[in-house]
Amino acid sequence: MAASAFSNSIKRSDIIHRLPPLPTIRDLIRLYKLRALKQLSQNFLMDERLTDKIVKAAGNIENKYVIEVGPGPGSITRSILRRRPNHLVVVEKDRRFIPTLQLLKESTFNVIELDIIRDDILKYNCENAFPTCKPKDWLDSPSTHIIGNLPFAISTRLLINWLKDMSLKRGAWIYGRTSLTLTFQLEVAQRIVAEIASDQRCRLSLMSQFWAKPELKFIIPGSAFVPKPEVDVGVVTLNPLKLPSTDLPFDLVEKVMRYIFSMRQKYVRRGIQNLFPPKIRDDLTKRIFYEADIDSQSRSFQLSNEECLRLAQVYYNIIQEHPVIDSYNYRGPKEEREVWDDWDLNSMQ
């Protein structure tokens, strides 16, 4: 039994470093006539030192379970494989890259389990990724990771989707506190980690920090990508908090944060008041700031995480009393907004 285990150890530690020679990423791109598609926001990272650095930022993934988002021709995929995960699932929407990924799968056959999923990551259910992975207690160190060079066009929407899954412990988070190591346009990366009073602070900052601990690990110059984007790129890790900052419903919190930051250069009450129909707007706006114990003339970026959550809590209390208010949308069609013109608290009893 010990001899068998030793044999398996040799297989995983040595063979992965003796992979059969493969064409370089540049050769593969030429071979398959691959080009980055603008509509898919594709930018390839060709420098092996940088792809290794991205994977290193994820921490120890040896014998762990990893999902890679948008592998493209497989440059980051190779760096992941060199770290010897137990099981790697790559999710790629563009059929043109499947042959290059298939080469990697064949090269690691019987060494590392590599599954290639041709799907849109916005639609892919990560719960199906690892049938043999046993869920871990939320407080335990995670055995699952998501790594990806994200297309700029979907990065924010994808992160919000994942944060919601994280809050509900579904999707990739049925396995435990799955960590994220992702690339973002630098400005977006800076928003994710922005602290109080930062010019970059926004809804995304708060939503990321309520459920995870985000860190900007390093910056990659745009010149390192092919084709070269007009901006630099930030590599961000997000590790789910053992104890989230709130147990309020994700969608409600996201809604309140959106209104808080909708007029960031004006007093925060200007955004918050739009949560409520016209006739009851003043009364409920005064109430929300009074009960949250917050100065209504603060600016949104001056509010702490805890203060923002107090506003969300009072809004939650209000809609528990008057559920219909939650359906009000001050940006909705005119005919829908007109229905609310004569509504007051008495008409909602």
From TrEMBL:
Pfam families in the record: RrnaAD (PF00398)
Keyword terms of this UniProt record: Methyltransferase, Mitochondrion, RNA-binding, rRNA processing, S-adenosyl-L-methionine, Transcription, Transcription regulation, Transferase, Transit peptide
Boundaries of every Ribosomal RNA adenine methylase transferase N-terminal domain copy: 50-242
Binding site for S-adenosyl-L-methionine: N43, L45, G70, E92, D120, N149
GO cellular component assignments: mitochondrial matrix
GO molecular function annotation: mitochondrial transcription factor activity; RNA binding; rRNA (adenine-N6,N6-)-dimethyltransferase activity
EC supergroup of this enzyme: transferase
Name of protein: rRNA adenine N(6)-methyltransferase
Organism: Polypedilum vanderplanki (Sleeping chironomid midge)
UniProt gene name: RNA-MT16
